């Protein structure tokens, strides 16, 4: 059977393509923006990708077209599918019917940390010899691939609240019907499809309604998620609290940067994690993964051992290279909260670096506000303070941004620059950097290949 995927290079659709290929389907696809790591992964799987959306790609006619949620009416390929009467479906619907049916689905939802937490949970189950299937919106370093079918009933999936397709405006995650659900956090995002936070909470409540009464919900103890649960919950819920108490999950830091911490359940220590990651956000992600894994029989002690071997997802504070003591990192952060927590973790880790002398080492933040929400400017007021943990910030004004970043730069808490040309941005970063610095590049796109270009320019300087 021939499946053709429109929008195949998205992190979700690319992962779905791999699962379909593993099931034995003939898989092809197309996209307008093709860049690593998903494009590289698909090429390695032998999946043919067409650049663009010309109707000719639908000859010979595929048996089924899976339509990505980035596709809209007016797209030439979409119009051809409709006019020719070619069978079509959404990615989440296909996944529900062909992969998740009859599986123990463990879904990870939330505004932030979904990809990392999903990868942690898959790593824990894999370490415990439970051979799970998984679909991650990125490429976990422990597996080197973003999806696999697995060998047992357990399937770990990143549960995105974005809509399913132009013909199905429900959130993707309502198709998944999890038995174990993580809700990491909840903030306003996706301003292109949601008018306000209440609209997102409504979708999260639709998800909560699908979890069986014999299942488990692991939820952060925050106002937005508490509001979701207050709308009705029929499933046992375990809360993750910011401070230790007699009920629920919590942590106690053993190192300030979060690289070592105790895990507490109902006030009692159940595990200790000593790992390579840092930042309070990653600590919270880890506790959620530990709690979810416990639901399927993995002890917190075993989960902590698994996390000691955890390697983060590509594009999550991924070290791309080092030249003359300057390290260049790639991070997917594209929401003000994610930018802030990423920089906070980087700053805490830098402060404990034993190789740096006093006064050495700075965080240079490089930000491309590229997401649909950022392009609309809905959260621009929150962007002003999100660089507080950086020493300097460089903002890139990408083509198509509907508002000017000038006010953000002018009112920033740290020295900041606004740059509209990529080559000039690289020049400024080379001029500003010095040995011991960490340049953290944050974007949810390819950013014009800035990482390698910057490393090359630093090499010339040295």
Automatic annotation (TrEMBL):
Keyword Hydrolase tagged: no
SUPFAM superfamilies: MurCD N-terminal domain (SSF51984), MurD-like peptide ligases, catalytic domain (SSF53623), MurD-like peptide ligases, peptide-binding domain (SSF53244)
Mur ligase C-terminal domain residues: 315-445
Cleavable signal peptide: none
InterPro entries: Mpl, Mur-like_cat_sf, Mur_ligase_C, Mur_ligase_C_dom_sf, Mur_ligase_cen, Mur_ligase_N, MurCDEF_pg_biosynth
Sorted UniProt keywords: ATP-binding, Cell cycle, Cell division, Cell shape, Cell wall biogenesis/degradation, Ligase, Magnesium, Nucleotide-binding, Peptidoglycan synthesis
Reactions accelerated catalytically: UDP-N-acetyl-alpha-D-muramate + L-alanyl-gamma-D-glutamyl-meso-2,6-diaminopimelate + ATP = UDP-N-acetyl-alpha-D-muramoyl-L-alanyl-gamma-D-glutamyl-meso-2,6-diaminopimelate + ADP + phosphate + H(+)
Chain positions recorded as ATP binding sites: 110-116
GO BP term, pick one: peptidoglycan biosynthetic process
Family to which the UniProt record says this protein belongs: Belongs to the MurCDEF family. Mpl subfamily.
Protein name as it appears in the record: UDP-N-acetylmuramate--L-alanyl-gamma-D-glutamyl-meso-2,6-diaminoheptandioate ligase
Record organism: Oceanospirillum linum
């Amino acid at each position: 059977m021939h499946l053709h995927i429109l929008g195949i290079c998205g992190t979700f659709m690319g992962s779905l393509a791999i699962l379909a290929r593993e099931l034995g389907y003939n898989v092809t696809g197309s996209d307008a923006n093709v860049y690593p790591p998903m494009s590289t992964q698909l090429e390695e799987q032998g999946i043919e990708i067409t650049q663009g959306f010309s109707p000719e790609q639908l000859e010979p006619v595929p048996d089924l077209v899976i339509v990505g949620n980035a596709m809209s009416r007016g797209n030439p390929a979409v119009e051809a599918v409709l006019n020719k009467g070619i069978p079509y479906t959404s990615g989440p619907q296909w996944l529900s019917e062909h992969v998740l049916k009859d599986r123990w689905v463990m879904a990870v939802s939330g505004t932030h940390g979904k990809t990392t937490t999903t990868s942690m949970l898959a790593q824990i189950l894999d370490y415990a010899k439970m051979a799970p299937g998984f679909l991650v919106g990125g490429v976990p370093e422990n597996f080197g691939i973003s999806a696999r079918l697995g060998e047992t009933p357990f399937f770990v999936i990143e549960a995105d609240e974005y809509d399913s397709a132009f013909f199905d405006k429900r959130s993707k995650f309502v198709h998944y019907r999890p038995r174990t659900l993580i809700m990491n956090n909840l903030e306003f995002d996706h301003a292109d499809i949601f008018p306000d936070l209440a609209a997102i909470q409504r979708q999260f409540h639709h998800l909560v309604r699908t979890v069986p009464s014999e299942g488990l919900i692991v939820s952060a103890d925050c106002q937005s998620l508490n509001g979701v649960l207050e709308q009705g919950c029929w499933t046992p819920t375990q809360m993750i609290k910011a401070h230790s108490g007699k009920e629920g999950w919590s942590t106690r830091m053993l190192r300030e940067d979060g690289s070592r911490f105790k895990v507490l359940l109902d006030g009692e220590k159940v595990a200790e994690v000593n790992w390579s990651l840092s930042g309070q956000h990653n600590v919270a992600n880890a506790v959620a993964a530990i709690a979810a894994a416990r639901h399927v029989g993995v002890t917190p002690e075993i989960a902590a051992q698994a996390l000691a071997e955890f390697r983060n997802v590509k594009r999550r504070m991924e070290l791309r290279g080092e030249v003359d003591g300057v390290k260049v990192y790639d991070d997917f952060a594209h929401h003000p909260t994610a930018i802030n927590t990423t920089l906070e973790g980087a700053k805490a880790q830098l402060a404990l670096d034993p190789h740096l002398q006093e006064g050495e080492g700075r965080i240079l933040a490089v930000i491309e506000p590229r997401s649909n929400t950022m392009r609309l400017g809905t959260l621009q007021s929150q962007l002003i303070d999100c660089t507080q943990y950086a020493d300097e910030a460089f903002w890139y004004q990408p083509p198509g941004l509907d508002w000017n970043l000038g006010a953000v730069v002018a009112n920033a808490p740290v020295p900041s620059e606004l740059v509209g040309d990529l080559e000039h941005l690289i020049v400024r970063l080379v001029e500003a950097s010095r040995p011991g610095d960490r340049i953290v590049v944050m974007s949810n796109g390819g950013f014009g290949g800035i990482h390698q270009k910057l490393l090359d320019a630093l090499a010339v300087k040295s």
